[in-house]
Structures are given as C-alpha cells and as structure tokens.
Amino acid sequence: MAATTLHIAPTDPDPSFAELIAGRPHLSIHALDGLLVEEVPLARIAAEAGTPTWVYSAGALRRRARALQAALKGAGLQAGIHYAVKANTSLAVLRVLAAEGLGADVVSEGELRAARAAGIPASAIVFSGVGKTEREMRLALAEDILQLNIESAEEAEMLSAVAASMGRRARVALRVNPDVDAKTHAKITTGLTENKFGVPIAMAPELYGRMCGLPGLDPVGLTVHIGSQIAQGVASYRAAYQRLGQLVRELRAAGHPVHRVDCGGGLGIPYRDETPGSPAALAGAIKAGLGDLGVKIMLEPGRWICGPAGVLLTRVIVEKHATTRRFVIVDAAMNDLLRPAMYEAWHGILPVSPNAFHAPLSPADVVGPVCESSDTFTRNRDLPALPPDSLVTFLDAGAYGASMSSTYNARPLAAEVMVEGARFVVIRERQSYAALLEGQRLPDWTG
Ligand code: LLP
User: Which of 64, 65, 95, 312 has the most other CB atoms within 10 Å of its CB?
Assistant: First the structure.
C-alpha cells in the first residue's frame, strides 16, 4: 500500500525550521519570546497551563473555514460544509467553526451531543458511520438532524424500522463505495472494495430503489468518502465524483429522487513536503463530476480545517545518550499524539526558545515516557541541544490529536488552549488525577 505521505524516518532532507514556520501563517518567531502562536508566546502558555498542552489558533481555524467556503463559491457550487467532528471534538473549536456557518458531520452520540452543545443546529448535522446503534438512530431522529448516511442494506432496514416506530421518516443518503484508490496510508483508505465502508457502487441502484420503498426512509441522495490525508492531487476525487455523477443519472432515470451528494472529506495537508490538492482543485473535481446535476453539494472535511491550526506543546524531561543514539524524552507521549505510533506519521517539530533556532543541530529521536517502543515521535530529526525543561512543539496536531488521546499508562488527558490574537484561554482543563480514577468501584471481595 502506498504510504508515501506518512513516514517517521524519510530519506530526503527534512524541511528547515524556517520553512516549517513560513508554511504556517499563525506561527512566528519573536527575538526574545521565541515561538509564538498568533501573538502569544508558547513559553507563556507552558508557564501558565503546564505541559503537555494542545494549542489552537482561532484565527487559523477561521481562515481555513473561509478559504474552503470561498473555493466552493468560486466554483459556483451551492455547497454546505459539515465539519467532521472526529478530527477535533473540542467545544470551543466547534463553536468557532459554527460561527463561520459550518455544520457538523458526526459519527457517535457523543459527537452529536458535542455538536449540539457547541450550538450547531440539528438542521446542519449529518450522522455518518458504519455502525450506528438503535439508540443513536433514535436520538438523531428525535433531534431531527439534517441527514443520516446509510452504509448497508441491513442498516437501511434497521433505521427504517426505528423511524417508523417513532412515526418518522429519516432523511438518508446512501454511502457508495466507488472502488477508487485514494493513494493514502492503508489505515485511512476507505473507498476500496476491501474496506468496510459503504455499499459497492454496482449494488447501489437496486438498494436505493429498495430504500425508496421502505416506510421509515426518505432517500435524499448519495454520499462518498474515499479516504483521509489525500495528498497526491485530486485525481482520485475526480474519479469518485465522476462515478457518483453517473449513478445520480442512473437513479433519476429509474425515477428516484436524488437531491444531494455528500462528497465526504479527506483533503490532505502538508505535514512535511506533500503537495495536496487545493480547495479550488477539489471544488473543480466536484464541479466536473456533479456540477450540472442540480444537486446540493455537501462536504465533510476534518483535517484540512483544523489540522494546521493546532500544535502540541511539550517539555523535555531529559536527554538520554545511549550507544550512538540521542534520545530526547518529552512529557507528551503516544497517549496524547497517537499518529506517529499508529501511522508512522511525520509531524514537524520546532523548539520554542529563540536561541534554539540558531543553535547547531544534531540528529535525535524524540520519544515519550510511555512503556512502548512505538512511543516514538520521530527518529533522526536534526534538532538543537534540548536540555531538561526546554519546550518543544509538534506541528499540525490540531486534527486527530486530542480527539485520539487516551489515558494509557494512567496519564491524564492534556489541557487544551485556544489563542486569539494576543490572548489565550484554557478551553479544556488538564484532567485531574481524581477525574482519572473517577467512576471506578472496589468490590469488597477484591480485597
Ligand atoms: N467523513 C467520513 C465519513 C470520514 O470517515 C472521515 C474521516 C471524514 C469525513 C473526515 O476526513 P478528513 O477530512 O479529516 O480527512 N485518524 C486518522 C484519520 C482518520 C479519518 C477517519 N475518517 C489520522 O490521524 O490520520
């Protein structure tokens, strides 16, 4: 499987600190204060909120939401953006995006509740996911959300029965698996026949017809999502949307209503040196495949919106020199940022101290304190000397960072901070040790 965009120890030279900063407009270096997010020194955040801490730029979130909206509008598409809540479930992030007019794409009761709690109207919420429980279906119907995306014939029957028992008809889109290779990491490819998602495109006409006859369903269209971190242009999107366009025509010819096409998410970001398609190129692919059908277009981006907007701020515990290797052991770990351990993902690493940007570099492995060899953020990265208490940031950690955290090794969930201009606010407190142990019971007989 092609994994060209995700790699812990690539052979070509890493981007320099200056290049990493230049590509991220919310980051800059101040001669005295060191690395800033917007106008706030990360050293100040570390001093006041501790480490490890996720830091999000509200300005970057807004800029990115607007850029995506502008690209869709520029292509003349009537389109709604439903932010994929799984990428970052923080209520403050959701609220910033809601204020920009974004809806939500949710995949669980928890995400639905988070979206509602952040003020996203039910009429702007789509429920995706391959295994919705009856309880989740009931909640979605009771809230009267915009649409549920159906992943199988079995799920269609189940949802119809649930809706009918409530005297409702669920607005549904059928998730089609177009058998298109998104050319991303195998663990985040979803549009191939071998993946568990959606129904094979060849089966879609028959199933859509059947869904139109089910008492509890109101089929409104189709949905597709071929993978995540799609970083090799938009050719695979083009192929998928062409196939979807043909399917829309076929369904209509058979007399079925098709009002909407949900085009999924997946647009990649440059973590290292990738050159993903731009929002304009994505909008062009949508227009080419679906533009003349008069369907309402929906999009479910997650990473593209919030990935670059966040960093994980961490503190060096100790540098360990063993045999020929230099290990920088930091206080963040794989339980915080799982992506390197899980996908061998490459994240930019920047020091925070202003002096560190001019210091000599030497290769280091940056690792966390968790008792697993996979608790390795990078190998052989050129970094300055990082004595104990130095601060370090992992870049592009705003998506699938905090939302994939765990408390493995009984490590509390890290704090989350949002920066706006010259101010910052803790938007989620660091989990307390009391909260970490909360909810557990000690039956007498265990003693
Ligand atoms: N819609 C559906 C149905 C999805 O399954 C996903 C992501 C999205 C939208 C949003 O995709 P995005 O625009 O964020 O690529 N944990 C992995 C990524 C898993 C993506 C799962 N589905 C990572 O850290 O790379």
Answer: 312
With beta carbons less than 8 A apart as the criterion, state whether 254 and 265 touch: no
Q: Are residues 167 and 141 located together in one domain of the fold?
A: yes
- The series of mean pLDDT values per 10 residues for the chain, 447 residues long, is 47 92 98 98 98 99 98 96 98 98 98 98 97 98 98 97 98 95 77 81 97 98 96 95 98 98 98 96 98 98 98 98 92 98 98 97 98 97 98 98 98 99 98 98 95
Tell me the C-alpha distance between 202 and 220, whole Å: 19
* Judgement on whether residues 230 and 96 belong to the same structural domain of the protein: yes
Tell whether 245 and 284 lie within a shared domain: yes
| Beta carbon of 365 within 6 Å of any ligand 1 atom | no
Residue 101 lies in a domain: yes
Dist. CA 433 → ligand 1 center (Å): 31
25 and 120 belong to one structural domain: no
Reduced to 3 states, what is the DSSP secondary structure of residue 144? coil
Does residue 69 form part of some domain? no
**What six digits make up the tokens of 87?**
């990428």
Handedness of CA 131, 405, 67, 179 (dihedral sign): negative
Across-strand partners of 419? 57, 424
Domain boundary among 302, 327, 360: 302
Last residue of one domain, picked from the residues 302, 324, 348: 302
The parent domain of residue 409 ranges over 17-57+309-437
- Does residue 228 line the site of ligand 1, with CB under 6 A? yes
Please give the tally of structural domains in the chain. 2
Same domain, 104 and 192: yes
Establish whether residue 175 lines the binding site of ligand 1, counting it when its CB lies within 6 angstroms of any ligand atom: no
Query: 339 C-alpha to center of ligand 1: Å?
Result: 13
Q: Which residues contact 162 (CB under 8 A, 6 or more apart)?
A: 134, 137, 138, 141, 170, 216
Q: Which of 157, 137, 135, 162 minimizes the C-alpha distance to 147?
A: 137
Handedness of CA 196, 334, 396, 380 (dihedral sign): negative
The residue from 212, 263, 306, 371 that is catalytic is: 371
CATH number at residue 234: 3.20.20.10
Per the annotation, the verdict on 371 as an active-site residue is yes
Q: Report d(CA 348, CA 430) in Å as an integer.
A: 24
| 15's tokens | 């981007």
Tell me the CA–centroid distance for residue 127 and ligand 1, in Å: 14
Structural tokens at position 41:
């020194």
Could you tell me if residue 5 is inside a domain? no
